Amino acid sequence: MLPGGLRPALLWSALVGATLVALFVLDRFGAGIDPQVLSWRRYRPSIDAMPVPVSRLALLALGLLGATLTVLAAARERHEHADLVPIDSLDVPRYLGAWYEIAKYPNRFQKGCDGYTTAHYSLLPDKTLQVVNRCRRADGRFIEAAGVARQLGPADSPKLEVRFAPGWLSFLPMVWGDYWVIDLDPEYQLAAVSEPKREYLWILSRTPTVPRQAYAALLDRLERQGFDLDRLEATRQAR
Q1: 51 close to 41: Cβ distance less than 8 angstroms
Q2: Regarding beta strands 142-151 and 233-234, do their DSSP bridges make them parallel or antiparallel, or are they unpaired?
């Protein structure tokens, strides 16, 4: 699968490639064309004498190739720098409860996890959310990390911030990390969470397994949002 922003550029590249082949055939074998025009002229030895191509068709081919590289570079830049778009709104009460991690971008703070990773969200009296992440280590022991999440903006905002540092450090901006819900099915059964720079990504489900068709459709949407699917690492879950 290809990112949507790159498909037109790659189609252009294929068209230019076919044009280059046609130009070569015409230039090399076309009727009335000297087959020597693509050869290099030889000059008597001189420190400033260099062989130069003399075919105008070859020059045109080089120009088309340069245009192709420019189009591809511009398309990739637009794709990589497009703003990440979260879902339109989040019904927090429906989002509460247990979620199973299906896949993620590998990260340093989950290096000790060997699978069976879950996240549980519950509402606190001050309207913030308690976050409890749990996973199993390679030695079979389970570890937990408890934190707090807060919404940014209105009550239906899909943009949150999460901290796992002690509460007395909550005044420091650097202890909060972005938590954006960027994909969520209408039934609140399958979700994707990331942050503006796309450095982190989690796929969460209400069940340990996800139907293949629903998962494939989610991956397609994530790719169109600019995520590198090759970085995704599946999470081991109970079957």
Answers
A1: yes
A2: unpaired
Classified as helix, coil or strand, 152 is coil
93 touches 195 (CB < 8 A): no
Both tokens assigned to 43: 């000059």
Burial class (CB in 10 A: 0-12, 13-18, 19+), 5: middle
Dump the DSSP string for 5-73.
GGHHHHHHHHHHHHHHHHHHHHHHH-TT--TTTTSPP-----TT-------HHHHHHHHHHHHHHHHHH
- Structure confidence by residue, pLDDT tens digits, 93-111: 999 999 999 999 999 999 9
Beta bridge partners of 149: 129, 162
Going along the chain from its start, the domains and CATH numbers come out as: 4-81 (no CATH), 92-234 (2.40.128.20)
Integer Cα distance of 131 and 30 in angstroms? 71
Give me the residue label for tokens 């990739």: 76
pLDDT of residue 82: 86
